[in-house]
Amino acid sequence: MMTGNPPRQATAVAQPNIALVKYWGKRNEKLNLPAVSSLSITLDALHTRTRVGFDEAFETDSFLLNGSPADATRVTACLDHLRALAGTDVRAAIVTENDYPTAAGLASSAAGFAALVVAADAALGLGLLPRALSLYARRGSGSAARSIFGGFVEMARGEREDGNDAVARALLDAHAWPLGVVIAVTSTSAKPVGSTEGMRATAASSPFYAAWVDSARADLTQARRAIMARDFGGLAAISEHSCLKMHGLGFAARPPLIYWNETTMACLHAVRELRAGGTPVFYTIDAGPQVKAVCLPEAIEDVAATLSGISGVLQVITSGLGAGARVVEDL
Ligand code: PMV
Q: Which residue has the least CA distance to atom 4 on ligand 1?
């Protein structure tokens, strides 16, 4: 409910998260409910800053992404849920800036919808709890539910038809087990097949899809245990397995879904070699060609040096683990 005189505008910052146990597939596309639970780490080096300003004078929502007008359809759909809660249909101007490549498999939609929901909640004076913020962020993008929280985050697929139990929760604070992440950017083009379309195609045609859904719960338990025990080797094994299993689904879809390029594969092998040589590092790859190498903090420099030396790697970004989405001062 709206209380007092709520501010009409607010700005929030959110960071992308990277799934170690992957979300792929929806149990309800309309409500955006995941078919499997997932587990992620929130980064600290990449930021999405979103300003939402509501104004009775606006006839439609407008969306400016990195300085250019962008399609507001998904943003409007997400804001409509919050407007309904606030009992208003006032339109908004949304201005979003990413300090990293957009839509190239660096989880910009995750940080984007998390920042949008946190900023809109503040601007409308709703005062939603993190669990509810996570739920509304999920309506925008499944992985966004996780960027509401920092550190290690678990996202439940939920069992309810209405999806009210499909929310994320914090598992472990970012400082409780500092890990490093080295992102090898191998392409800055937008991915050819978006995640919603890719998930739909995989569920419809990959013969491995049922096995993927059936085995997800055990993967999550294994990852959660490894995190609680600070067992890096255990987390490496289950994370790489979940990543390859997700991409394996796509390879077996008809037509096949291949997000990797040859540099992706070269990075994957380089990480395997580093680990064979004793460096604590593992890889994960989302719906794009970038490789994310997760390591213990002391290995960051070695991992970054190795990945930057690979032909085809355009840029290497290093990060630690960071905080969840939050309201910040307007610039
Ligand atoms: O949140 P979406 O709809 O962009 O889907 C994210 C899917 C992956 O990034 C590939 C996996 C994940 O769990 O983040």
A: 195
